Every structure is written in structure tokens, then in C-alpha cells.
Amino acid sequence: MIRVLVADDHAAVRAGVVLILRGQPDIEVVAEVSDGKAAVESARELRPDVVLMDIRMPRLDGISATRELSGITEVLILTTFDLDEYIFGALRAGAAGFLLKDTDADALIQAVRLVARGEGLLSPSVTRRLIATFAETSARRPPDLGVLTPREREVLACVAKGLSNAEIARELDMTEATAKTHVSRMLGKLGLRSRVQAAILYTGA
Question: Which positions ≥6 away from 114 have C-beta within 8 Å?
């Protein structure tokens, strides 16, 4: 069962998201809150697998809330705004995914499942712009992949292709637990908070 916390200050939007998620047999909505501070407090208490987080909220914005929850739970941003400052801010804060509110119900459900498994996910409408911008920045300051072992570089390449831990295990002939360990070590050495950050960094390398 995937335990989800929904944080959005618009009651109608929040109710709609909750209704969609509660219709799935493998998803349980453990709480719904209307601001970022409540999202942080509830997530620390309830430890959901995924927090669906809006960007613009009272008391504490979604990016700041995401930063506070880094390492505690996976955060999937769900917002109306696809501004660069929000996209980059959310990913730097450690968000595992970024979706727009025009995403259909099936895509939202699948996104929650992917993020709960430790995968990264970006809305198709922002991916190309994000990668182009990051690649331009990385060209001026290339990432230091020299800190990685050869195996960790292979794992990074798999992450950049969007492979899950199970798929990485099959690709590189290792157990899923070993793949998960390599992903964790790779992210740590590169100072990254999510697989999405790793995939973008690899694209710009």
C-alpha cells in the first residue's frame, strides 16, 4: 500500500486529487493539508511514502517544505505553474518529480506509483526546457564524475535512461538491493538529492 499525503491550499483541487487517489486499491491517502508548514509537520509524524506538494501555499511554500522533507519522504510537486524558478527550485530542494495540474488522472496515479518506488518523473511539457537549460549551465561548469567508481558510472547511465532499480539490476546483472545501494552511493558522492537531478546532470555532462 502506497501512503500519500496531499498538500494544496485550494480545497477543490485537493478534494479532486484525493478522490482520484482513493479510488486506487494500492494507494491510501493518510492526510490532506492546506499549507506547507502543515505538510512538513504531518509528513514527519505520519511518514507517508509520497507527499503530493503544491508550490504556492501559505505559511510555508512548497519548495521550502520540500527542502525540509528531503531524506524523510519522496515529494512529487503538483502545480499550475511551470516557471523555471519553480522547476529548478523544486529539484534543487530534492523533489522526486514535477507535474502540472493539467495532468490527467491516469498519469497522476502512475506518477505516484513511480515516485513511491524511488523513480524520478517530470511533466513532459517541462522536460525539454529543463534539460536544455541544465546542459547549458553544465557546459560552463562540467560535473565531476571522477568521484564515481566505474560501476557507479554505469548505474548513473542507467538512471539517466529512466531505468528503475529492478531494471538496472537486470541490465547490470546484480541484485535489486545492490542496484539500490549503488544509486544511493552515486547520489551521495555527487551531492544530489534525487534521481531526476542525476539524470539531468548526466545529460549535461
Answer: 97, 120, 121
Determine the Cα–Cα distance for residues 181 and 145; give it in Å rounded to an integer: 18
CA distance 171 to 80: 37
The 10s digit of each residue's pLDDT in 21-62 is 999 999 999 999 999 999 999 999 999 999 999 999 999 999
Q: Assign 3-state DSSP to the chain and report helix, strand, coil percentages, each to 5.
A: 55, 15, 30
Say if residue 201's pLDDT is above 60. Answer: yes
Burial class (CB in 10 A: 0-12, 13-18, 19+), 22: exposed
H or E stretch including 13? helix 11-22
Q: Could you give the CA distance from residue 60 to residue 141 in angstroms, rounded to a whole number?
A: 32
Element (H, E) at 28: strand 27-33
Is this prediction's pTM over 0.70?
no
How do beta strands 74-79 and 97-100 pair? parallel
Q: Which domains does the chain have, with CATH numbers?
A: 2-126 (3.40.50.2300), 133-204 (1.10.10.10)
pLDDT in tens, 70-119: 889 999 999 887 676 777 788 888 888 888 888 889 989 999 998 998 87
